[in-house]
Design brief:
With 237 residues, the chain is mainly alpha-helical. It has a single domain, classed as Iron/manganese superoxide dismutase, C-terminal domain (minor pseudopilin epsh fold, 3-Layer(bab) Sandwich). A 3-stranded antiparallel sheet has the order 2-1-3, sandwiched between helices. Strand 1 and strand 2 form a beta hairpin. The termini are far apart. It binds fe (ii) ion. The site of fe (ii) ion has 7 residues, from helix 2. The site of fe (ii) ion (FE2) has 7 residues, from helix 2.
Length: 237
Amino acid sequence: MPTFSSGRPPHTRHFSYAVALCLVVSLLFIVGCAPEPKGPALTLAPLPWARDALEPIISARTLSLHYGKHHAGYVIKANALIEKSRFKRKSVEKILSATRGKNKYEALYNNTAQAWNHAFFWGSLTPKGGARPAGPLAEAINREFNGWKGFRSAFIETALSHFGSGWVWLVKDKKTLRIITTSDADTPIAQGLTPLFTIDLWEHAYYLDYHNKRKVYVEGVFDGLAHWKKAEQRYRP
Ligand SMILES: [Fe+2]
């Protein structure tokens, strides 16, 4: 009478099944027990310099209101909205990409984007600004904007031609650099772009110091506070 066999003794096969089962159970246990991210999605990080460090271009009074009231307010509102949403365990970048342009999440997007934009803005400024970029970023700027003068005038012109509240950005779009503006809270990271540098164009950023003279503020920040070393670090050719 012929018999059918895998060629391995039955007790060996049972042992293999048991090992495989143990591995699956262990994996499920590990996944189930993996700690979920705790705490709020956004935090109000301390400013990287003293509140009077950007004077006279940005006064301590403006900075105290801008950071302590506006930025802090966006963080508080964003965290409250995220906590009540299905995004509470997602990264800020994923939240922004998933909620952009969706009416249902308009307030969540706006507050989260403003919190992110402001943190990025503080990182774009330094009291030791004024120097020009170096290395690959400088080469790309010279190549794509016909030199530093061309870049400076294009950046400032773009900022001044923006209507209403928003932001002016130097971004990397695939392989090229672009100067863009976004309206209100909108942010380039929700559009698949890589921001390198920004200036806040909301009136709360300059009205106390310059009233309606946005040009004086933008030129002052660009020429005196721009943190090009940080932009170089953000740039990946
Ligand atoms: Fe702002």
